[in-house]
Amino acid sequence: MNIEELRDYCLSQPQATEDFPFDKDTLAFKVKGKMFALTSLKKWEAGDYSINLKCDPAKAIEYRGKYPDEVFPGYHMNKKHWNTVVVGGSQLSPKFIKHLINHSYELVVSKLPKSKREGLIHKPGR
Predict the structure, then answer these.
(1) Which residues 6+ apart lie within 8 Å of 28 measured at CB?
(2) What pLDDT, on a 0 to 100 scale, did the predictor assign at position 122?
(3) How is the chain split into domains, by residue range?
(4) Residues 54, 42: contact at Cβ < 8 Å?
(5) Spans in the chain with pLDDT lower than 50
(6) What's the pLDDT score for residue 124?
(7) Quick one: pLDDT at residue 125?
(8) Contact, 77 vs 60, CB < 8 A?
(9) Quick check: 75 and 22 in contact, CB under 8 A?
(10) Range 3-117 classified under CATH 3.10.20.30
(11) Reduced 3-state DSSP string for the chain
(12) Cβ–Cβ contacts within 10 Å for residue 93, how many?
């Protein structure tokens, strides 16, 4: 998965937006102002094809154990709730990476107030 595919998929989530909240190189994907994915464009240019994604703490530990070269505690993030996932040149399938993005998005949506969750349910087949 390349950066364009990653960006397109993140933005395909209902009401997802992109933003540069920290600097001109750190691209964040948000829903209702809450971040569900984060990546460094500078790192992509240097060959570090990774993204930070929110994850259920138990699943985070499971994925880190199962994929130790591709999934590890979130770089500069809360290590309990975020994973850094290698997406380019990774052994992880694009389908699994999309699953991780969906999981991150859904976790963030589930924590939103009920009034803000309206219209954010995934379409069948996602």
Answers:
(1) 18, 19, 20, 21, 22, 35, 37, 38
(2) 54
(3) 3-117
(4) no
(5) 123-126
(6) 41
(7) 43
(8) no
(9) no
(10) no
(11) CCHHHHHHHHHCCCCEEEECCCCCCEEEEEECCEEEEEEEHHHHHCCCCEEEEECCHHHHHHHHHHCCCCEEECCCCCCCCEEEEECCCCCCCHHHHHHHHHHHHHHHHHHCCHHHHCCCCCCCCC
(12) 10
Which pLDDT belongs to residue 30? 96
CA distances in angstroms from 72 to 6, 37, 87, listed in the order given: 19, 15, 12
CB 31 within 8 A of CB 108: yes
One-letter amino acid at 41 equals L
Relative to beta strand 50-54, strand 82-86 is: antiparallel
Count of beta carbons in the 10 Å neighbourhood of residue 118: 10
